Amino acid sequence: MPLSNWLCIHPSSATTDISDTVSLDNRGLAYGDGFFTTMGVIDGQILWLAHHQQRLVSHAEALQLELDNHSIMAIIRTHAEQLQQGMLKLMVTRAVQDVRGYGYVPTASGSACEIWLKSSAMTVTTTEQLRLPDGCLIPMQPISSAICLSSQLTCLPPLLAGLKSLNRLDNVLASGELQSIKAQVSEDNIKPRISEGLLRDMSGRWVEGTMSNVFYQLSDSPLSTLSSEKTASEKLSTLPLYEDNANYLTTGQWYTPSMAQSGVAGVMRQVLIDALSTSKHPVIIRSLKDEDLPRLSQLFFCNALRGVMPMSSLTLLSGEVVGF
């Protein structure tokens, strides 16, 4: 398969380039009727394969899509071996329906799906690695900073909340806001570097990043914030540098917001929850509210490709900066 091309791997009779076969009636394109998962590949092996497989099963069940999980995983493994290093993106959409409009027939044809796969050669960062309590290693990105965004996530019904569905317009707009902020920061040569934005949902609770889940710790008393009027160099000099990651995950109590009404229950989020489940401080599912932000003592974002992204500060909507 040519790299960076989409390939239809189901139905098997249509294993050709997407540009030759995709229809404007495709329900993923028309209605966002489907889901996707993005997998990192190192040395021909898919990272966190069992968690991605569980996503296929749970999402297909939630959206009432029929797929052969075992054959799909076999195909994915083959492409991972060919790719060796990079990213695989799998997209599942409901097959075209005879019913007019949104609906689909409650039969086998209504649950039929099209499955697309894209291979992209890229470097999956492994220079710095963080050891989980079970001995597994995950990538750890350089320290950067985050900012609270004004964009908001949609609150969803329980059946759809947490799914990595193709309906991602709220993330699209939020990512656009973040890119605009990053461009301005770069133009003004402001430090530290902003790499992620924190998003709240329509209920006002802070849920996740634009492309990641969030974990946090709280101090016993409110932290002092850095004045937004300080210079960039003064802000940078005030921020503690994170040097030793040996006990990063196992020291202190970590929390992560619930995905019960908004956000995506990410693969790396579940990997970390599982890894810490038997530790002294298992991860606690807890809402993150406005009044918690000044009390943050640690914050990191995570996803299946980039691993853990530790933050040294969070800029609030008011312009104040909470340093960790």
What general form does the structure show?
A: globular
- Unreliable residue runs: 221-243
Average pLDDT score: 87
Order of helix and strand elements from N to C terminus: EHHEEHHEHEEEEHEEEEHEHEEEE
* Helix percentage range: 10-25%
Domain module tally:
2
Secondary structure class reads: alpha+beta
The number of helical elements comes to 8
Regarding quaternary structure, how should these chains be classified? Answer: single chain
Indicate the CATH topology of the largest domain. D-amino Acid Aminotransferase, Chain A, domain 2
CATH class group of the largest domain = Alpha Beta
Count of DSSP strands? 17
- How far is the N terminus from the C terminus? 45 Å
Gross CATH architecture of the largest domain: Alpha-Beta Barrel
What does this molecule look like?
The chain folds into two domains: about 5-125, Aminotransferase class 4, branched-chain amino acid transferase, N-terminal domain (D-amino Acid Aminotransferase, Chain A, domain 1, 2-Layer Sandwich); about 130-324, D-amino Acid Aminotransferase, Chain A, domain 2, CATH 3.20.10.10. Helix content is about 25%, strand content about 30%. It has eight helices and 17 strands. The chain has helices at about 20, 25-30, 50-60, 70-85, 110, 170-190, 230-240, 265-275; strands spanning about 5-10, 35-40, 45, 85-95, 115-120, 130, 135-140, 145-155, 195-200, 205-210, 215-220, 225, 255, 285, 295-305, 305-315, 320-324. Strands 8, 9, 10, 11, 12, 15, 16 and 17 form an eight-stranded mixed β-sheet that branches. Strands 1-5-4-2-3 form a five-stranded antiparallel β-sheet. The protein has a two-stranded antiparallel sheet with strand order 6-7. The termini are far apart.
